[in-house]
Amino acid sequence: MDKTQADIGVFGGSGFYKLFDKAEEHVIETPYGPPSDKVVIGTLGGKRVAFLPRHGSHHQIPPHQINYRANVWAMKSLGVQRIISPCAAGSLQTNVKPGEFVVCDQFVDRTSGRKDTFYDGPIATHVSSAEPYCPEMTKFAQIAGKQCGITVHPKGTVVVIQGPRFSSKSESKWFTSMGWEVINMTQYPEVHLVREQEMCVVNISLITDYDSGLVGDVEPVSHSEVIKVFEQNISKLQSMLVKLIEALPESRNGCGCASALAGARFT
Question: Among 32, 153, 210, 245, who pairs with 214 as Cys (CB 3.0-4.6 Å)?
Fold first, then answer.
């Protein structure tokens, strides 16, 4: 395989800036401007994997300023067919505890002003986001977590807020009252843009804290505490990623992600 090609892409989130010990860095140019950083390509779990820290390698890009389209397009240009999208996240429910993982299957978008489609015209294109995450990859992620001895919630809804601020207590109580499990700042539009490019995507949310409105005696969330808990659990995430990547079959098996554009245009 060409050294500038990869099978699987991984976006690194807060506290997750490196995946390989030995790898090659590549500068990728896109029609949408520069990605967050150089793309690092190496071998993991017997497969070629491309890694890109979505905030940049020094966490210099806040969530609302990430060039999501450039990041996703860069992965697509490398031949990537599957994206693993881990993230640090807060819990909105008492049964979802810090240090545990959630493999989210739905999102609620509470962002604004983000470039969230590749299809600005001239042909109107409406890609469904009814089932935004790949069911096949989700299944393998659930199994990988169990194999690593990690407490993994097999499904959940992630509320994506604009950032860079955290939620007020009233906002957080509202999200909790709706029954949603996870809160984060980066899953949208990343996941939908991946789907628009007909790649598969799975989310692994590493829970770092209880969100501020969950219960009365919870300390307000701070970024420093998020990073602290994430770093304490990064080895678990890396082990899970290896298991997941090893288990993924060479070809996609009827998950439907590769035909996301079918029926998306009026003809």
Answer: 210
